[in-house]
Design goal:
With 409 residues, this protein is of the alpha/beta class. It is built from 13 helices and 13 strands. It has two domains: 278 residues, Aldolase class I (TIM Barrel); 76 residues, no CATH class. The protein has an eight-stranded parallel beta barrel, surrounded by six helices. The protein has a three-stranded antiparallel beta sheet with strand order 9-13-12, with no helix packed on it. Bound molecules: flavin mononucleotide. One of its GO terms (biological process) is 'de novo' pyrimidine nucleobase biosynthetic process.
C-alpha cells in the first residue's frame, strides 16, 4: 500500500508510486484535453490528490470573459495569440494553487499548432512542472526548454517506431524523455496517432506490442527500465485493466474521457452528458483538419458534416482562416488539403466546451466509462482505478439535457 505524495494528499492505492524527475507520484495521469476541457480546475484537482493533472494549452482565453471580450470579434492573430498566453499563465497559476504542492501540474501542447513554441516558453515561464507534447513529433522540445532543466519533458507517441525516433534524436541532444505516454489509437479520444482512420486498429499499436517493444528498445539503448516510466493511455476503465497494464510494463495510466466527465471537469455539464451518455454506435472515427484521424461523438453537427465531407473535400482549396486564429500550422480547411477535414476545429470545439450540443464537436474515446453515464468526482475515479473502490450509489437526478432536443447556448 502506498500513500501518494506531497503534504496532504493521500490515497491508499494498490500500486507503487512512479517517479518523474525525482518526484513520487500516484500512477495516474489526467490527459490534456482541448479546447478548454482540461483547464485549472480539473488539472489542479488531480494534482492535489498526488497524480499528474494536465492543462491543455490551446485557446484557453475561452475560460476568461475579459480576454474573450477583447478578441471575440477580432481576426487579429497576434492579439488572439497574446491573450491566449495570458490565459495559459493564469490557468497554470490557478492549478498550482489548487494542487497546493502535491502531485504534478503539466501542460499539453499539440506539436501541430502554429504557436507550439510560444506555448512551451510561456508554460516554462509560468512555472509548469511538465511539458507534454502530442499530435506530432516534438524533436525540438529539449532546445525549447533548455533554460528550464527541472521541467519534465513527456512526449505522447503510439508505436515503437515513433518512440525510437524521439529517443535517438533526443539522446544526441543529451536529453531523455522523463516519461512517455503511449496512446493507443484504437481506444483514445481526440486526435489519434495513426495516419488514417482505417489504421487505428493496426496490431503495432496494441499495448502489449508497444510496451514490450519499448522495454526492448531501452535495453538496446542501454537505458534502465525505471529511468523512463511508460504511461498507457486509451480506453482504461477498470482496476483490473490497470493491473494488467502494469504487468505488461506500464508504470502509470492516462485517462481522458473519464476525467472530462468528472464533477471537476472544466467543460459545461452538457459536454459531460454527451460523452457519458454516448453509446458505442454513437462514437465515430473521422479525419480532422489537422490531417490526423480523430474520434468523437456523432452529434448533430458531426453527422451533418460527415454527410457533406466528400463534397467539401472535392472542392477543397486554399483560403483565408475564417476566424483569424490560424491555430494549426497546417489546416486542411485553410490550406485546402483535400484528404484532411474541412471544418474549423477551434470553432466546433469551443461550441462543445460551452455545451452547445447542436454545433459542438465532442471528442470521446471508444470504450465504456468506469461509472457508465454517472458524473462523479476526481477522487472517486482515482480511488476506483487505483484501489478498486466502488463509490456509494448516487441518488437519481433528473437528466439535464439530451442532445437531440437541446437548444444552443
Ligand atoms: C475532449 C477531449 C479532448 C482531447 N484533447 C486532447 C488534446 O488537445 N491533446 C492531446 O494530446 N490529447 C487530447 N485528448 C486525449 C486525452 O488526453 C487522452 O490521452 C485520451 O483521451 C485517452 O483515452 P481515453 O479517453 O479512452 O481515456 C483529448 C481527449 C478528450 C476526451
Amino acid at each position: 500500500m502506498l500513500t501518494g505524495t506531497g503534504r496532504t494528499s493521500v490515497l491508499k492505492t494498490a500500486f507503487d508510486t512512479f517517479n518523474v524527475r525525482g518526484r513520487p507520484l500516484l500512477p495516474i495521469v489526467q490527459g490534456g484535453m482541448g479546447v478548454g476541457v482540461s483547464a485549472h480546475r480539473l488539472a489542479g484537482n488531480v494534482a492535489r490528490l498526488g497524480g499528474v493533472g494536465t492543462i491543455s494549452s490551446v485557446d484557453l482565453r475561452r475560460h476568461h470573459p475579459d480576454l474573450m471580450a477583447q478578441t471575440k470579434k477580432s481576426r487579429d492573430k497576434e492579439l488572439i495569440d497574446r491573450v491566449n498566453l495570458i490565459a495559459l499563465d493564469r490557468e497554470i497559476k490557478a492549478a498550482k494553487v489548487i494542487a497546493d504542492g502535491n502531485g504534478m501540474v503539466a501542460v499539453n501542447i499539440m506539436r501541430a499548432v502554429a504557436e507550439y513554441a510560444s506555448y512551451v516558453k510561456q508554460a516554462c515561464e509560468s512555472g509548469i512542472d511538465a511539458v507534454v507534447v502530442g499530435a506530432g513529433l516534438p524533436l525540438d522540445l529539449p532546445e525549447l526548454t533548455s533554460d528550464y532543466p527541472d521541467i519534465a519533458l513527456i512526449p505522447i507517441l503510439s508505436d515503437v517506431r515513433g518512440i525510437a525516433l524521439i529517443m535517438k534524436k533526443w539522446m544526441r541532444k543529451n536529453r531523455l524523455p522523463d516519461a512517455i505516454v503511449i496512446e493507443n489509437p484504437k481506444y483514445a479520444a481526440g486526435h489519434l496517432g495513426a495516419a488514417k482512420p482505417e489504421d487505428v486498429n493496426a496490431p503495432h499499436f496494441a499495448f502489449p506490442a508497444v510496451l514490450e517493444g519499448t522495454l526492448e528498445l531501452f535495453k538496446e539503448l542501454g537505458i534502465e527500465r525505471e529511468r523512463i516510466p511508460l504511461i498507457a493511455a486509451g480506453g482504461v476503465n477498470s482496476h483490473e485493466q490497470v493491473q494488467e497494464l502494469f504487468k505488461m510494463g506500464a508504470s502509470a495510466i492516462q485517462l481522458g474521457t473519464a476525467f472530462a466527465v468528472t464533477e471537476e471537469g472544466d467543460a459545461h455539464i452538457n459536454f459531460k452528458k454527451i460523452l457519458a451518455e454516448a453509446k458505442p454506435e454513437d462514437i465515430v472515427t473521422f479525419m480532422s483538419v489537422a490531417g490526423l484521424p480523430a474520434r468523437g461523438v456523432r452529434t448533430p453537427w458531426l453527422m451533418n458534416y460527415l454527410d457533406k465531407e466528400a463534397k467539401l473535400q472535392s472542392k477543397a482549396g486554399p483560403k483565408q482562416c475564417t476566424v483569424g486564429f490560424d491555430c494549426l500550422a497546417q489546416c486542411g480547411l485553410r490550406d485546402g488539403i483535400a484528404k484532411a477535414g474541412q471544418f474549423c476545429i477551434d470553432t466546433q470545439l469551443a461550441f462543445a466546451l460551452e455545451g452547445d450540443v447542436k454545433r459542438g464537436l465532442f471528442f470521446r474515446g471508444s470504450e465504456k466509462l468506469p461509472f457508465g453515464s454517472e458524473i462523479r468526482s476526481v477522487r472517486e475515479l482515482v480511488e476506483f482505478l487505483l484501489a478498486g473502490k466502488r463509490p456509494e450509489p448516487k441518488a437519481e437526478t433528473a437528466p439535464i439535457m439530451v442532445y437531440k432536443d437541446a437548444t444552443p447556448a
